[in-house]
């Protein structure tokens, strides 16, 4: 019986160790929040007949 040599591979970790900055998780969350905000703005315009800025009284 022959033993095969064990090989090890290292995986490079590209994420920031502090969790801040342009990490994959933060970009995913940012994209999801942007989609929710856009959907909210479109919903306000559809239901009230006013634009987002008119709804809040800015214009």
In short:
The chain is mainly alpha-helical and 59 residues long. It has helices spanning 24-48, 52-55.
User: Helical content, roughly?
Assistant: 40-55%
As a whole number of angstroms, the C-alpha radius of gyration is 24 Å
Which outline best applies?
Answer: rod-shaped
Number of helices: 2
Q: Which regions are unreliable across 5 or more consecutive residues at pLDDT < 50? A: none
Arithmetic mean of pLDDT = 82
Characterize the structure shown:
The chain has 59 residues and is mainly alpha-helical. The protein has a domain of 32 residues. Helices cover 49% and strands 0% of the residues. The mean pLDDT is 82.
Give the arrangement of secondary structure elements.
Elements lengths: L23 H25 L3 H4 L4
Q: Key features?
A:
59 residues; mainly alpha; 49% helix
């Amino acid at each position: 019986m022959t033993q095969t040599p064990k090989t090890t591979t290292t995986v490079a970790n590209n994420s920031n160790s502090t969790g801040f900055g342009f990490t994959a998780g933060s970009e995913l969350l940012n994209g999801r929040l942007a989609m929710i905000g856009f959907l909210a703005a479109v919903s306000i315009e559809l239901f009230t007949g006013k634009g987002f800025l008119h709804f809040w009284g800015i214009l």
